């Protein structure tokens, strides 16, 4: 009989750690929103669940992401459990990992996949050497430079917030890694526009 332990309860979904005969996996269950009408609720949950599963499949063998085990296309996804530490807890003492983040994101963006919630809490370092991206609940497929630039901008904000002590060096290394992208120059130009809009709002 499977044992389920709640790891995280968010606005979007509940994440369980599932143990079945010593095999550990992650079970993600999207919840109904009581304020939405039933049909819309079902449509959105199904659409986001299928999209997340599709993203995981497409990224497999391109960058390190959890292997997809099962998707019922309605509300549940089961995937590989990545045993390691969050990048959030080790980046300050291992700045070179920021370059690896840039490389991985560039490969994602060249496949026109947007993460949507790129923070160091959504990355896991396994065995002190393999970096994994996790939590693709807000991911999407998009060719727009704007969406790719926003992905980078969100990661930059996460660095400033959680890793301010090493921010300058970490961000430079991240940007250096991202330069492998086929659209580096265009994305960087769009990033300047995204950041200028943010500055104008603060005035």
Structural notes for this entry:
With 203 residues, this protein is α+β, with helices and mostly antiparallel strands. The protein folds into two domains: 3-80, Phosphorylase Kinase, domain 1; 85-202, Transferase(Phosphotransferase), domain 1, CATH 1.10.510.10. It contains five helices and ten strands. The strands form three sheets. It has a five-stranded antiparallel β-sheet, with helices on one face. Strands 6-8-9 form a three-stranded antiparallel β-sheet, with helices on one face. It starts with a strand and ends with a helix.
- Class by helix and strand content? alpha+beta
For the largest beta sheet, what order do the strands appear in spatially? 1-2-3-5-4
Q: Please tell me the overall pLDDT.
A: 92
Task: Quickly give the CATH architecture of the largest domain.
Answer: Orthogonal Bundle
Number of domains: 2
Figure out the total of helices.
Answer: 5
- The CATH topology name of the largest domain reads Transferase(Phosphotransferase), domain 1
The portion of residues assigned to helices is 40-55%
């Amino acid at each position: 009989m499977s044992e389920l332990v709640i790891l995280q309860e968010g606005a979007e979904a509940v994440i369980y750690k599932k143990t079945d005969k010593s095999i550990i996996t992650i079970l993600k269950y999207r919840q109904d929103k009581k304020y939405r009408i039933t049909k819309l609720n079902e449509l959105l949950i199904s659409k986001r669940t299928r999209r997340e599963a599709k993203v995981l499949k497409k990224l497999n063998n391109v960058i390190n992401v959890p292997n997809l085990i099962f998707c019922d296309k309605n509300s549940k996804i089961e995937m590989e459990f990545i045993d390691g530490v969050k990048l959030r807890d080790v980046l300050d003492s291992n700045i070179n990992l920021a370059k690896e983040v840039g490389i991985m994101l560039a490969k994602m963006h060249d496949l026109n996949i947007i993460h949507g919630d790129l923070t160091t809490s959504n990355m896991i370092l396994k065995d002190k050497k393999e970096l994994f991206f996790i939590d693709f609940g807000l991911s999407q497929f998009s060719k727009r430079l704007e969406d790719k630039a926003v992905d980078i901008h969100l990661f930059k904000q996460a660095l400033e917030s959680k890793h301010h002590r090493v921010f300058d060096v970490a961000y430079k290394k991240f940007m250096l890694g991202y330069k492998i992208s086929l659209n580096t120059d265009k994305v960087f130009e769009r990033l300047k526009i995204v950041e200028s809009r943010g500055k104008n709002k603060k005035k």
